[in-house]
Amino acid sequence: MTKRVRSYIALAATLVLASAFSFADDGAATYKAKCAMCHGPTGTPSAGMAKAMGIKPVSDPSMKALTVAQIEAAVKNGKGKMKPVAGLTDAQVSAVAAYFKTLK
Q: In the chain, is it the N or the C terminus that has fewer CB atoms within a 10 Å radius of its CB?
């Protein structure tokens, strides 16, 4: 293999990896688009939403105790009055669950 061909292969691999990272879902953006309307922008729902849907703030000990896997399951399958969130890829579900764990 010539040096030039190896350079092209290395460049192509770099571009593929760079594009994969640039298109990786941002959990914060998904949260804002799909979750914040019920759970609140900072993880604290409005009083009305909390009462109507039984949503606890992220500061509640039972919410803090949730693992990322449990949050992912709730997003995919629903929980209580929460219906499954449609239209998310597995990567988006993982990213939003990890983001949710960062909320205080």
A: N
